[in-house]
Amino acid sequence: MTDDCPDRGRMGPRSFFRRVCLACTVALLPALFGALDARAQSSNSKAEAEAPAANYSDPALWICRPGRADACAVNLDATVIAKDGSTTRETFRADADAAIDCFYVYPTVSREPTGNADFAIDRDLSRTVVQEYARFSARCRLFAPVYREVTVPALISLMSGKPMPMSWDLAYADVLVHGEPISPTTTSAEALCWWATARARLCLGH
Hints:
Blueprint: H1 8-11, H2 13-42, H3 45-50, E1 62-64, E2 78-81, E3 87-90, E4 100-105, H4 123-132, E5 140-145, H5 152-159, H6 168-174, E6 200-205
Parallel strand pairs: 4-5, 4-6
Antiparallel strand pairs: 1-5, 2-3
């Protein structure tokens, strides 16, 4: 009788079994996450409908904006370690006349006990901005809005099969790119990655 899987004998039964399990897991993941996402979305329609639109003319809704002392305006001096182990101190300087506007959408970091985060700028947000984004000020003017992201506890509840009310659409709507110019006084959450047409723009996400 011909073996339909000639590599099976060489890899051993345990290795073969692990590969079969891995293939089944990969095949089932899309269906699993689709079902969990559907359950999460079905539980939050009322909360999403009642949520007010973000008003980005309010400076409090920005973690970072040019010309102010905020989470991006911190000491970013660094120690450079050479191949021979010697160290030198590198002084960081932001470019006050940068020609590029950089907009940043931070990753899932909120540990608030709700499905979606509020607009509070807590330590988790500030630390993430410093670690991932602030050094872009060497080449960019920095803009980082606060948005109502789905929280870490919400993701845990989703993975456990008991999702709390949450809204992916609410988080996305806060940072939706609509293709319209905005200014620091805009009230629209749309087009966060657009600015005056005379300036270069860059959107950064994680």
